[in-house]
C-alpha cells in the first residue's frame, strides 16, 4: 500500500513540475521586465519548496529536493535575469527546457567528435559506472557488518556510499536527456578522490552541477557587490564564504525534508568550516605562491583526510535521525529485487 501511495505521489509531483515549467516556457520567458518575471516565477519556486514533502521514500525526497528545490529554483532565478542554461538558447524546445530546468544537466559547448571518439568515450563511461555500481553494492553489503567494523571505517564508508550513489543517480537521470537531445552534458563529478586541495575539490571535482549553479547565483553577485567596498581580493573571500553558507543552508533544508525535525545546524557549520579553510587556502596560496607547493600525492592524502574527518559533522544529523539507515534499507530492497530478477532470468534461459 505504501509503495502505491509513493507512486501516486511521484506522479502527482512530476505532473505538477511539468505544468509549472510549461507555464514558464510559454508565458514567463515572453515577459521583458525582470521584476514582473520575478514575481511570476516566485509562486513556482515556492511550489518547488513544498513538493518534496509529498514523498515518503527517502530517495524520492532527496532527489526531488535536490533537483527541484535547489537546482530547479536556482536555475529559474537565473532565468529571470536572462542568465544560466535556460536562457542560453532562444530557440530551445519545450521538452529541452523542462529537462534542463528539473534535471541535473547543463549542456557543454558543442564540439565535433568522430563516431569512433564518441563510441570509445561511451564505452569507457559505461564501464566506469558499472564498476562504481558494483562498489556501491559492496558498500551496502558491508553495512550489514558495521557493528564489527571500527567507527572511523564506517564513517569513511558513509562518504564513499554518498559519492558512489550520487554519481550513479545523477548519471542515470542525465542519460535520457543526452540520448533524446543528442547533447553532451557537463560531468557531475570529476574524480573527487584525486583532489589536491579544497579549492580543487569544491571548484573542479565535486558535484559540479551545484558549483556551476552557485557560481552565478551566489558567488559572482556577492563578490561584485563588495568589490568597491573591500577590493577584489577580500570581496572574493566574502563571495566564497557566502557560497558555502548558502550551500550549508540548502543541505539543512534537504535534511529537514528527510527528517521533519528542526535543524541543529551541524551541516551548516560543516560548510562554514570548509568555507573558512578554503578562504585561508586562497590567501596562503596568493601569499606564498609555489613555495608551499606539496607533492600531489601528499596534498591528496591531506585533502581526503580533512574531508573524511569533517564529514563526521556532515553526517551527524543524518545518522541521528535515521536518514542513512533508511537509505541503506531502500538500497537493500533494490538489491534483493535485482538479485531475484537476475535469478529468474537465468532460470528462464535454461
Q: What does the model show?
A:
Keywords: Acyltransferase, Membrane, Transferase, Transmembrane, Transmembrane helix. It is found in: Membrane. With 350 residues, this protein is mainly α. Helix 2 runs antiparallel to helix 3 (58-80). The chain folds into 2 domains: 2-103; 116-335, no CATH class. It has helices spanning 2-26, 34-50, 58-80, 94-102, 115-142, 151-181, 198-204, 208-230, 232-259, 266-288, 296-320, 323-349.
Write the layout of secondary structure elements.
Layout: H1 2-26, H2 34-50, H3 58-80, H4 94-102, H5 115-142, H6 151-181, H7 198-204, H8 208-230, H9 232-259, H10 266-288, H11 296-320, H12 323-349
State the domain count: 2
**Could you give a short account of the major beta sheet?**
none
Report the β-strand fraction as a percent range.
Answer: under 5%
Topology order in helix (H) and strand (E) letters: HHHHHHHHHHHH
The residue ranges in which pLDDT falls below 50 over 5 or more consecutive positions are: 112-120
Helix content: over 70%
Distance from N terminus to C terminus (CA atoms, Å) equals 35 Å
Spatial shape? globular
Average pLDDT rating:
84
Amino acid at each position: 500500500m505504501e509503495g502505491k501511495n509513493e507512486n501516486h505521489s511521484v506522479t502527482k509531483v512530476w505532473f505538477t513540475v511539468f505544468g509549472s515549467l510549461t507555464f514558464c516556457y510559454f508565458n514567463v520567458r515572453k515577459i521583458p521586465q525582470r521584476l514582473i518575471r520575478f514575481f511570476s516565477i516566485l509562486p513556482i519556486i515556492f511550489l518547488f519548496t513544498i513538493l518534496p514533502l509529498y514523498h515518503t521514500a527517502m530517495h524520492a525526497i532527496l532527489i526531488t529536493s535536490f533537483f527541484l528545490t535547489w537546482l530547479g529554483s536556482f536555475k529559474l532565478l537565473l532565468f529571470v535575469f536572462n542568465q544560466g542554461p535556460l536562457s542560453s538558447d532562444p530557440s530551445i524546445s519545450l521538452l529541452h527546457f523542462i529537462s534542463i530546468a528539473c534535471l541535473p544537466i547543463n549542456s557543454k559547448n558543442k564540439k565535433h567528435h568522430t563516431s569512433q571518439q564518441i563510441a570509445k568515450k561511451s564505452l569507457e563511461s559505461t564501464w566506469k559506472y558499472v564498476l562504481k555500481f558494483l562498489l556501491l553494492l559492496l558498500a551496502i553489503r558491508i553495512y550489514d557488518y558495521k557493528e564489527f567494523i571500527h567507527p572511523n571505517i564506517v564513517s569513511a564508508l558513509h562518504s564513499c556510499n554518498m559519492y558512489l550513489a550520487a554519481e550513479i543517480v545523477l548519471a542515470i537521470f542525465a542519460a535520457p536527456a543526452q540520448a533524446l537531445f543528442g547533447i553532451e552534458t557537463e560531468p557531475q563529478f570529476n574524480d573527487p578522490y584525486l583532489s589536491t586541495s579544497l579549492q580543487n575539490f569544491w571548484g573542479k571535482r565535486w558535484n559540479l552541477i551545484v558549483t556551476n549553479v552557485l557560481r552565478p547565483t551566489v558567488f559572482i553577485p556577492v563578490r561584485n557587490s563588495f568589490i568597491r567596498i573591500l577590493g577584489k581580493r577580500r570581496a572574493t573571500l566574502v563571495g566564497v564564504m557566502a557560497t558555502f553558507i548558502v550551500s550549508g543552508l540548502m543541505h539543512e533544508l534537504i535534511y529537514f525534508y528527510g527528517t521533519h525535525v528542526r535543524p541543529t545546524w551541524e551541516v551548516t557549520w560543516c560548510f562554514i568550516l570548509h568555507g573558512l579553510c578554503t578562504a585561508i587556502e586562497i590567501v596562503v596560496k596568493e601569499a606564498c605562491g609555489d613555495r608551499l607547493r606539496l607533492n600531489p600525492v601528499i596534498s591528496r592524502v591531506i585533502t581526503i583526510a580533512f574531508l573524511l574527518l569533517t564529514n563526521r559533522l556532515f553526517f551527524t544529523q543524518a545518522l541521528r535521525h535515521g536518514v542513512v539507515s533508511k537509505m541503506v534499507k531502500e538500497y537493500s530492497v533494490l538489491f534483493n529485487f535485482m538479485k531475484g530478477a537476475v535469478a529468474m532470468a537465468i532460470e528462464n534461459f535454461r
